[in-house]
């Protein structure tokens, strides 16, 4: 079965309140605009999730809601995952091991630096210095189960972000 994993970094967040905890930082105006735009791009490419798993931090939750809304995805089905907050790459694989095998397209919305490190492991020859805010990296692969992810060849099908020149 062909599967698609879509990794998304949260949209641009606000630093307006220096006393606010990092976990509670919201999106800024640019982030609020760009997240639904990326959702529309994904929809136009017919990359629509069967499941969204998202960090519980405020900026990732807001990003997920805006992208899900643009895609017509039911927010009640989002899994809010605390361990995605500033996680290391191996946590992403742990998350994949828990995904039900009827899910064909999975979106994970998380943070740097872990998301950049994980994306750089997705496919040989693909590498980035930094996953931009609201950046999207997607891979496809053939596997009967999500827990086979580390063992299969994966192909990058999309790397996009707000403001990227075509």
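^ Assign residues to that structure.
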């Amino acid at each position: 079965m062909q599967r698609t994993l879509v990794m998304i970094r949260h949209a641009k967040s606000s630093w307006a309140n220096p006393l606010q905890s990092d976990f509670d930082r919201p999106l800024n105006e640019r982030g609020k605009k760009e997240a639904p735009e990326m959702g529309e791009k994904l929809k136009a490419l017919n990359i629509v999730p069967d499941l969204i798993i998202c960090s519980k931090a405020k900026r990732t939750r807001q990003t997920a809601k805006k992208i899900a809304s643009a895609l017509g995805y039911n927010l009640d089905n989002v899994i809010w995952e605390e361990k995605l907050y500033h996680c290391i790459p191996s946590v992403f694989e742990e998350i994949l091991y828990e995904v039900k095998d009827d899910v064909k397209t999975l979106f994970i919305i998380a943070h740097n630096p872990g998301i950049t490190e994980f994306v750089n492991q997705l496919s040989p020859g693909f590498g980035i210095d930094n996953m931009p805010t609201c950046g999207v990296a997607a891979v496809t692969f053939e596997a009967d189960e999500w827990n086979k992810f580390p063992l299969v060849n994966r192909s990058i099908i999309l790397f996009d972000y707000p403001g990227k020149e075509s």
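The chain has one domain: 2-13+22-160.
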